[in-house]
Amino acid sequence: MGERERQMRRTMSKAGWGAIVYIITLNVGVFFAALLLLFLRGQAFSMQAISSLALSDGWAYMLAVVVGVGILIGFSNRRLRHQYLHAHEARMTLRAGLVVIAALLAVQLITEICGVGIETVLNHFGLSALDQMREASKLGVRSGSMMLYAGLCGPICEELVFRGFILRCLQPLGTKLAIVVSAVLFACAHGNVIQTPFAFITGLLLGYIAVHYGIKWSIAAHIFNNLGLSIGLQLLVKDLHLPFLTVALTLLSIAALIWLVVRYGRKALAWWQAERIHRGNLMLALSRLPVIIMYAYALAMIVGGIQAK
């Protein structure tokens, strides 16, 4: 094994372990943060109380993700921190921003179609993932603090981890490889039968935005997606009783997808085909031990959410 290959393996493993550190910190941190909140509020300790608080109180999640991001930033050297906070190739324009919004709408549509397809296949075997899908979709509207976490704090921290630390760690091995692998790890971190494919596609888009326009714009796009297209729409439909908005958004998403394919399809394909990812490097990255651990985590979470119909 040459020095270059050893360096590649170390770099890929570093990115994978970064994702694992974040996931462990998130899950363990939520538990202990929930314990702390129960203590501060003078409530009795029990697993049911901890579970209930963790699912409805966003402060536990916010404490956990901030610690997780802090750990990864602490393990980043100065050059890496500067790169993932400031590096970009072009300035964001109004036109580019509109394309990003259209792409996020198109991803929402593709995800809905994937969700229906997945549920149809599961139903064929007498299974269902509807409960898991509903729980995931309602996470951000359970309380004001959960809305703050899912719509603002979560996107900022996830971008710093996946499009910051992980993507920039991998970028010396190739920008497209870094985008793809960071999207894979981002998808695995969600561990949900519907959110995992959605997170992968969204991760590709956010990765491109982070590389091309800078991480502040991938953060903005992530916040718009979570706070606007997910939480905001649910609140409008539920509280203001405007169900037609769902239909309107679906039609708008269809129009956005068609426009993107017609207007930018060839350009996107040409960009992807230029300087293709070396297949050996991609397979090496996706077969590292920490990445395999992330696969196992995602699979366990997905299977755990599937129930008999």
Describe this entry's structure for a reader.
With 309 residues, the protein is mainly alpha-helical. Helices cover 83% and strands 1% of the residues. The protein is built from 13 helices and two strands, in the order H-H-H-H-H-E-H-H-H-H-H-H-H-H-E. It has helices at residues 3-40, 47-56, 58-75, 78-86, 94-124, 130-138, 144-170, 175-190, 195-213, 215-239, 244-273, 279-286, 289-304; strands at 127-128, 307-308. Strands 1-2 form a two-stranded antiparallel sheet. Helix 4 (78-86) packs across helix 7 (144-170), helix 5 packs across helix 10 (215-239) and helix 7 (144-170) runs antiparallel to helix 8. The longest helix has 38 residues, at 3-40. The relative contact order is 0.14. The model has no long low-confidence stretch (mean pLDDT 87).
